[in-house]
Amino acid sequence: QLQLVESGGGLVQPGGSLRLSCAASGSTLDYYTIGWFRQAPGKEREGVSCISSSGSRTNYADSVKGRFTISRDNAKNTVYLQMNSLKPEDTAVYYCAADTRIKYYSGRLLGREYDYWGQGTQVTVSS
Fold first, then answer.
1. For 90-124, how does the pLDDT look when each residue is reduced to its tens digit (9 = 90+)?
2. Is the dihedral of CA 111, 94, 84, 31 positive or negative?
3. Residues near 111 by Cβ (< 8 Å), separated by ≥ 6?
4. Could you give the CA distance from residue 103 to residue 21 in angstroms, rounded to a whole number?
5. How far apart are CA 64 and CA 26, in angstroms?
């Protein structure tokens, strides 16, 4: 079965950068929309970004537009989230997720539409 593993999280100062990776095994990601989500303690899960199966289309939450970039390398079965100009409010556990059921790219950032999830990686932005 499909497994997703996030990596690249850590502690960074405000204004710094991190690059998260989502590596898949057990199945190819070629046909799946992939999303990044985040959740901070006491907060609801929020969508961050998503990318179509080919990588030709992307969507971002307003809070990260211009700062984050999602990309994918299907040959490596990996999706990335480049995070620049990080802010304390970006602190959260970040999850990648695959939508293996909906057969078109909607650009929506709705967690309920994603059926496979990674374990998450902690991102902490603090001085």
1. 999 999 999 999 888 999 999 999 999 999 999 99
2. negative
3. 35, 37, 45, 47, 97
4. 24
5. 31
3-state SS, residue 5: strand
Per-residue model confidence as pLDDT tens digits over 65-83: 999 999 999 899 999 999 9
How does strand 68-73 pair with strand 58-60? unpaired
Q: How long, in residues, is the chain? A: 127
Tell whether the torsion through CA atoms of 62, 63, 65 and 66 is positive or negative.
positive
End-to-end distance of the chain based on CA atoms, in angstroms?
A: 40
- Do residues 105 and 52 touch, judged by C-beta distance below 8 A? yes
> What's the rounded Cα separation, in Å, for the pair 4 and 78?
9
Residue 30 has what pLDDT?
A: 82
